[in-house]
Amino acid sequence: MIYTTTLNPSIDYIVKVLDFKEGETNRSYYEIKIPGGKGIMVSKLLNNLGINSRNIGFIGGNTGDFIEKSLREMGIGTDFTKIKDDSRINIKLKTDVETEINAKGPKITLKEENSFFEKIKNIKEDDLVVLSGSIPNSLSNDFYERIVVELNKKNIQFIIDTTGKKLLKVLKYKPFLIKPNKKELEELFNVEVNSIEEIIVYGRKLLDLGAENVIVSLGAKGAVFVNKDMSIYTPVIKGKLVNSVGAGDSMVGGFIFGIENKLSVEESFKWAVASGTATAFSEDIGNREFIEDIYSKVKLNFL
């Protein structure tokens, strides 16, 4: 089983406004509420590609009920830890410039934390766990590391998509995949990188610290993959950017799809790029037909 972890899930309230004017009353022409959170986005992508997964994390209140109901209606499995406080609502304002307001999230009690870790302890050795997204303010900054310590006791493979010290702390536990973007890579090493060659250098430093596979997303300039055997660069696929939310999570999902289908890591990287690009060119998470179309256009340049 693939478990996707979203510690701080949300309702993403997406609002589109024409000719937005700050400080004035604006009227939307489009609104939608969808379950949000990085682990949830990974599950939605996997679902579109026919791969089952199960969401874990914390949900509470009417907002939490909406999140769980929506996922189940999509056919996505859930095993959330129920909490007393309400899950958050994030606002995604789409106008000439895309703006997000992400709420801090609920207060989680020690008893609720312990209930969550009981679920972690039930995960089996041959399962895969995806850890991604923000940690609610009421949880300790080392919460991901605490999860990984439990997973490591059974040699459970994990993927982590987070940033800064939270990422550096878990590299020694040898994550199967990490996926920083260019800015996050620069912040990790306090440097500025200006070429694909430099991206590869610092990607390999992450391998030295423990990561098995590294994808560095470069936005409009493509993506880089490195592991101990190879370095690959793929240029960006041209198209109209519609939605930046979930593109990185879709890359993680695409890579998992390849691995689950016993493909090589280079082919899995190709699926990752196709999945991330399809989502960036779609209103929501990319669908399978669109992903397959883009997959045929992805060029791998081995360096």
What does this protein structure show overall?
It is built from ten helices and 15 strands. It is α/β, with parallel strands linked by helices and 303 residues long. The protein starts with a strand and ends with a strand. The protein has two domains: 175 residues, Ribokinase (UDP-N-acetylmuramoyl-L-alanine:D-glutamate ligase); 125 residues, Ribokinase (UDP-N-acetylmuramoyl-L-alanine:D-glutamate ligase, 3-Layer(aba) Sandwich), CATH 3.40.1190. The longest helix has 16 residues. Helix content is 37%, strand content 23%.
Topology:
Elements lengths: L1 E5 L3 E8 L10 E9 L1 H11 L5 E7 H14 L2 E2 L2 E3 L4 E7 L4 E3 L8 H12 L6 E5 L10 H11 L3 E5 L2 H5 L8 E2 L3 H8 L6 H13 L5 E4 L5 E4 L4 E4 L12 H14 L4 H16 L7 H8 L5 E2 L1
Parallel strand pairs: 1-4, 1-9, 2-7, 4-5, 4-6, 9-10, 10-11
Antiparallel strand pairs: 2-3, 7-8, 12-13, 13-14, 14-15
Helix pairs in contact: 1-8, 8-9, 9-10
In round numbers, the mean pLDDT is: 94
The level 1 CATH classification of the largest domain is Alpha Beta
Structural class: alpha/beta
Radius of gyration: 19 Å
Largest sheet: number of strands, sense, barrel closure: 7 strands, parallel
* Total discrete domains: 2
Low-confidence stretches: none
Counting copies of identical and different chains, the oligomeric state is single chain
Proportion of beta-strand residues: 15-25%
Helicity, in percent? 25-40%
Per CATH, the superfamily of the largest domain is: Ribokinase
N/C terminus separation: 34 Å
